[in-house]
Amino acid sequence: MLKYVKNYVDILDVIRTTCGPTENKFGNGYIKIFTISIEQYQKVQSTLKERGFNYYLVRPIDKRPLKVVIKDLPLDHDTDEIKNRLKKHLFVINKVTRLTQFRTRQPLPFFLVEIGEREILTKPKDIFKLKNLNHLSISVDPYRGRRKTIQCFKCNCLNHTAELCSMTSTCLKCGQSHTTNECETKQRIENPICINCNQVGHVPAYRGCAEFPKLTTAHKNRNNNFDSNKYLVNSNISYAQKANGTSANTLDSEQQMEPPAHRPTNNVNNQSAASASTCIESNVNNPPTPEISGNNDLSVLMTALKELRKLMKEAP
Predict the structure, then answer these.
(1) How far apart are CA 72 and CA 135, in angstroms?
(2) Alpha-carbon distances, residue 233 vs 1, 237, 313 (angstroms)
(3) Cα gap 2→237, rounded to integer Å
(4) At what angle do helices 8-19 and 38-51 cross, to 10 degrees?
(5) 181: number of Cβ within 10 Å
(6) What 8-state DSSP symbol labels residue 136?
(7) Are the C-beta atoms of residues 75 and 69 closer than 8 Å to each other?
(8) In CATH, what is the architecture of 63-142?
(9) Burial of 104 (0-12, 13-18, 19+ CB in 10 A)
(10) Which run of H or of E encompasses 127?
(11) What is the DSSP letter of 186?
């Protein structure tokens, strides 16, 4: 990734003359140079370094180290001991670090292992077959990483690390050409100047900077104002009443305001009960004659059968 300057055409001409044709694409203040082979990649890198151009590397996928996480080890386990033990299993170990929580920085019982390539002997992916380490059962999982913006400690620019950076060092505090830990300014600066957006009032590490990448997640796009109580079924009101805008409270108040219905006296109840018993006795003694239904359907069926029999006789 070549940092954009006004005379970028001259730089690309030098690369084309020295290293051969490349595909170049501009974006976010950098020119990304695509090479066709590892040899050309290394030649472009050496050319940019010799000429003193500002750039940082994007390591090829096949040259990137394998990162795994070893679990089920004690929290205070020595990382050097893990590294030495893995080397005895013929792995090329670049580094072993203990993972920490993102906000509290509290140590976690997980160890990040970075494994390099080797042409002979053990392959990096063979570490997933490892089940025991230092006489303890372990589990090895791929490292998924944290979704956060990467910022270089050397130039304080974004989206790359100091390990692959070949740009001029820039101080986070004063903006001069030296690293932040070498800065002589120890007190707090009231109005710092951001080297990424050139605005006064914040440092390049400020997440509210206009140039600082914003991480978006699916949860931010969701509507969290969903009211579940709004859609609960109300057993005191029907659908028609809800459609008409009648609430359950209105119905309750109307029912309470309605006067009670006139109840008949006991004599009337006794008379109705006596008449009902008389009707029951008469029905038992003289059961009603059931009506014969379906005569029309039966006649239609018989007619159809006759026609069918007639057709069968006429058929040869």
Answers:
(1) 12
(2) 60, 9, 67
(3) 70
(4) 130
(5) 8
(6) E
(7) no
(8) 2-Layer Sandwich (3.30)
(9) exposed
(10) none
(11) -
**118: which residues sit within 8 A by CB, 6+ positions away?**
90, 92, 124
d(CA 93, CA 202): 39
- The CA-to-CA distance between both ends of the chain, in Å, stands at 96
Amino acid making up residue 114? E
Structure tokens at 168: 């001029």
The domain spans of the chain are 2-58, 63-142, 146-214
Write out the two tokens for 221.
């796009």
Residue 136 and residue 72 in contact, taking contact as beta carbons nearer than 8 Å: yes
Tokens standing for residue 307: 């026609």
Of 32, 37, 33, 10, residue with least CA distance to 22? 33
DSSP 245-271: T--HHHHHHHHHHSPPPPPPPHHHHHH
DSSP 3-state of 74: coil
**Helix (H), strand (E), coil (C) string for 33-47:** EECCCHHHHHHHHHH
Q: Are 190 and 181 in contact (CB under 8 A)?
A: no
Q: What are phi and psi of 140, to 5 degrees?
A: -120, 125
Residue 218 in tokens: 């699916």
Which of the pair, 99 or 286, is modelled with greater confidence? Answer: 99
The type of residue at 126 is D
100 pairs with which residues across the strands?
Answer: 107
The pLDDT tens digits for 136-182 are 999 999 998 766 778 888 888 888 888 889 988 888 888 888 888 88
In tens, the pLDDT along 96-108 reads 999 998 788 899 9
| Six-digit token string for 294 | 């379906």
DSSP-derived 3-state class of residue 50? helix
In sequence order, what are the residues at sequence separation of 6 or more whose Cβ sits closer than 8 angstroms to the Cβ of residue 130?
Answer: 89, 138, 140
